[in-house]
UniProtKB/TrEMBL annotation:
InterPro entries per the UniProt record, alphabetical: HpyO/CreE_NAD-binding (IPR038732), L-asp_N-monooxygenase_NS-form (IPR052189)
Name assigned to this protein: Adenylate cyclase
Boundaries of every FAD-dependent urate hydroxylase HpyO/Asp monooxygenase CreE-like FAD/NAD(P)-binding domain copy: 6-165
Pfam families: NAD_binding_9
Length: 597
């Protein structure tokens, strides 16, 4: 009897795990036989998010040259490097363009097929185009995975969950808003993947309150404008079709995510990690209490990102500094994180305040700003977006790119800590994972055309029972409200252990799997084994991806940036193969298959 693994989820994370499995089988598992069952209702490779049957208007928010699914020598892993092409190299697309999600899906399908082809003939992959609903079985024995529409479960020695981003049932606020909409004949679209939402109820010319200014909003914007027949001319101006609703958009920050950086890095990279590396994490984890993000982690992260920023500023633009880099670096290293000595050093060494890094100000760009009307707010937000576009496409401000590299380095270290709360992930996305520059230029054109209207920061939404409408207000324009018969929550569902949208995850929690306060599944950051509420890791169950406390910044990454998800995939693949190899004495599971795979 062959050993077997069930992998639930065949998107990029499942594909990445399979790629690492293929890379490690020869050294860890030899020519023993192995059955790999891949379970997903969507095609393997792209999975749900990158599937082919979605609008070609939906783009990636990365350039083709910045997307790879393959490891290199910057990935800190024990398994072998298995190089491969970037999306640009594989597809022939212009390296500096932002491809459609369909194009990325085709690349991911090829990566999947390449990983399958790299497996030895003793390993067989079986695809099951359905959903997994439950995992059962004893800790010491084989596991059973029940599939939708089938009476007999898959039986396996190990289960690896690579579920990707998950839906969630509505929380109390969203249920109340949905009930209100039902009573008054309004439209309420709760948090969801925009590509999966039915937007047909949003009527032409009617106001729509949109809460959320991240990538889900960018998708919404594209589908309700060009997706309804509007177009941009050669000068970038938008010409409505007349079928668009009027989108009133706001959020906690009140501004869109920062534009993707539009230039290429040249010269020396900051030597990272420097102040938040493996030794620093080891020291934090050795303490008797669990590290607190704001108290223990954030000061080191702030100093690390500052180091990346100032390293680039001093080495690339010394004319904008008042001292030499070696002198600054020595004093910067000696100063306490976030302390007055560090602030004084920066003030004395960097004359222009605009050249200093202020992460708190970046996180709250509209704090303290008040506008007398929504009309004046429109001008203010357009100026903010234009300034952001200019800066993020100006190589003279490549210290921003230094911070981006610092963010990637920090993210990789935080994976060892486990769940650090939702704020960090939102802040990372705001600075490092924003929309392509062309999307923000489209946003400006839509604002000029009156199709998009800005609400500002600190947006609140109320259900007005008297008028039977939704009302939105913001801290940016106190005392003034926008009314609409439609509300769209333009954001992904928040993870929840109490309201998981996945029946499989619900069953795991009911059986005893642990969840963090943020609703994420508890796993051992070292190898991805699922952790129970009793603190014990399950020897036969693993989980990788954004639904876990060890969520990485993405299932794929820029070449030569460490690839934190790749490191996790490798660790889990090696742990799984080692476990399977050690299940039985040598020779008892040493079969060679005949026939064609």
């Amino acid at each position: 009897m062959s050993a077997s693994i069930v992998v639930v989820g065949a998107g990029p994370r499942g594909t990445g795990f399979l790629e690492r499995l293929a890379a490690n089988v020869p050294s860890l598992y030899g020519d023993r036989t192995l059955d790999v069952h891949l379970v997903d209702p969507h095609p393997a490779g792209g999975g749900r998010i990158w599937r082919a049957d979605q609008s070609p208007l939906l783009w990636m928010n990365s350039m083709a040259e910045d997307v790879t699914m393959f490891t290199d020598d910057t990935v800190q892993q024990d398994g072998p490097v298995r190089p491969g092409p970037t999306l640009a190299e594989w597809s022939g697309l212009d390296a500096r363009t932002f491809p459609s999600r369909r194009a990325q899906g085709e690349y991911l399908r090829w990566v999947y097929e390449d990983a399958v082809a790299a497996l030895p003939p003793t390993v067989t992959v079986h695809e099951h185009r359905t959903r997994a609903t439950r995992v059962g079985g004893p800790r010491e024995g084989r596991q059973r995975v029940w599939l939708e529409g089938r009476t007999q479960p898959l039986v396996a020695d190990l289960v690896v969950l690579t579920l990707g981003h998950l839906d969630a049932e509505l929380d109390e606020e969203q249920r109340e808003l949905a009930d209100f909409a039902d009573r008054h004949g309004l439209v309420h679209l709760p948090p969801a993947f925009t590509a999966d939402s039915d937007l047909s109820a949003l009527r032409a010319g009617e106001p729509v309150i949109v809460r959320g200014f991240g990538l889900a909003f960018v998708d919404l914007m594209a589908l309700l404008t060009e997706g309804r027949g509007g177009h941009y001319d050669a000068d970038g101006a938008y010409h409505p079709s007349g079928r668009e609703p009027i989108l009133h958009v706001g959020s906690r920050r009140g501004v869109p995510y920062h534009s993707k950086i539009g230039y290429t890095w040249t010269g020396e990279r900051p030597p990272l990690p420097r102040f938040f590396g493996p030794a620093d994490v080891d020291a934090l984890l050795s303490r008797p209490h669990r590290p607190d993000f704001r108290r223990d982690l954030w000061p080191l992260i702030d100093k690390e990102l500052g180091f990346a920023h100032y390293h680039r500023l001093f080495t690339a633009y010394p004319e904008r500094t008042a001292v030499d880099w070696p002198d600054f670096e020595e004093k910067y290293a000696a100063a306490d994180p976030g302390g007055p000595a560090l602030r004084a050093l920066i003030a004395a060494s960097v004359p222009d305040p605009a050249d200093r890094l202020d992460l708190e100000a970046l996180d709250h760009p509209l704090d303290g700003l008040r506008f007398t009307s929504y009309e004046s707010l429109q001008d203010g937000l357009r100026s903010y977006i234009r300034a952001d576009l200019t800066r993020r496409h100006d190589v003279k401000h490549s210290e921003d790119f230094g911070v981006f590299l610092g963010l990637l380095s920090v993210y990789g270290q935080l994976l060892r800590v486990g769940d650090v709360g939702g704020w960090w992930h939102g802040f990372f996305s705001f600075l490092a994972s924003g929309p392509p520059g062309p999307r923000l230029r489209q946003l400006l054109a839509l604002s000029d055309a009156g199709v998009v209207r800005f609400l500002g920061a600190g947006v609140t939404v109320e259900a007005d029972e008297t008028k039977g409408v939704f009302r939105a207000g913001s801290a940016s324009v106190p005392g003034q409200w926008i009314e609409a018969a439609a509300l769209v929550e333009a954001r992904l569902p928040e993870p929840s252990a109490d309201r998981p949208g996945s029946p499989l995850l619900r069953a795991l929690y009911e059986e005893g799997a642990g969840a963090a306060d943020t609703g994420l599944l508890q796993v051992d950051p070292a190898d991805g084994r699922i952790t129970g509420r009793d603190g014990r890791t399950h020897p036969r169950r693993f989980a990788l991806g954004p639904f876990t406390v060890a969520r990485a910044s993405g299932a794929f990454t820029r070449p030569r940036t460490g690839g934190a998800a790749f490191r996790q995939n490798d660790a889990t693949a090696r742990a799984a193969l080692t476990f399977l190899r050690d299940l039985a004495p040598a020779g008892e599971r040493h079969y060679v298959k005949g026939g064609v795979r």
